[in-house]
Amino acid sequence: xxxxxxxxxxxxxxxxxxxxxxxxxxxxxxxxxxxxxxxxxxxxxxxxxxxxxxxxxxxxxxxxxxxxxxxxxxxxxxxxxxxxxxxxxxxxxxxxxxxxxxxxxxxxxxxxxxxxxxxxxxxxxxxxxxxxxxxxxxxxxxxxxxxxxxxxxxxxxxxxxxxxxxxxxxxxxxxxxxxxxxxxxxxxxxxxxxxxxxxxxxxxxxxxxxxxxxxxxxxxxxxxxxxxxxxxxxxxxxxxxx
Length: 242
What we know:
The chain has helices spanning 4-10, 16-24, 117-123, 144-152, 189-196, 227-236, and strands at residues 2-3, 28-30, 33-34, 41-42, 49-51, 54-55, 64-69, 98-99, 108-114, 132-138, 155-156, 159-160, 165-172, 175-182, 201-209, 212-213, 222-224. By secondary structure, it is an alpha+beta fold. Strands 7, 8, 9, 10, 13, 14, 15, 16 and 17 form a 9-stranded mixed sheet that branches. Strands 3-2-5-6 form a 4-stranded antiparallel sheet, with no helix packed on it. Helix 1 (4-10) packs across helix 2 (16-24). The longest helix is centred in the last third of the chain and has 10 residues, at 227-236. The two termini are 18 Å apart. The mean pLDDT is 91.
């Protein structure tokens, strides 16, 4: 017996958290009975599971995609306003994959996409503290005290940020480029951190996620993870033996 949301995520429906929301919203039935408790247990291959009336398909082959997201794309599967999403960049990929976390519409850089629900859940869980490094071009040049303030952590409207690695990477035309490494996954966190110290972000690029880097990828391009990269990212996510 397995948890319903885990079975759904493994079948490529969505991330495990999104599957929990679908269950709570009454969109899922098991053997014809509506189930609204995410913790419900089912027998894969035996119980008939339907999502929005459609029978759950057999688990898809897992895909692990590394995309260099351009600015002007949403890190979602679809947008009710008709804006472009990162899935529009995955031409030729037959499997359904979903973004692991988010990258702002106005930001660019690395984004991992997969249909492995267990990995998505683990990578986005706060306890694993997956490091992500950004290059943030900010307005003006922060003083050493302000750089140190960012590194120690600043208090935003949703609470204090965790300590981060922050250094001035470059200065051009009177504006600094900061190299910032964080492990939290808050909404627009880097932008809000820089705004807090009085140096708003002009351009933001994510250059690494854990051991994954943008090496060899141009804007809008994607590739599959190598066996070595997959092994490393699973180990970081606590799935090293899977």
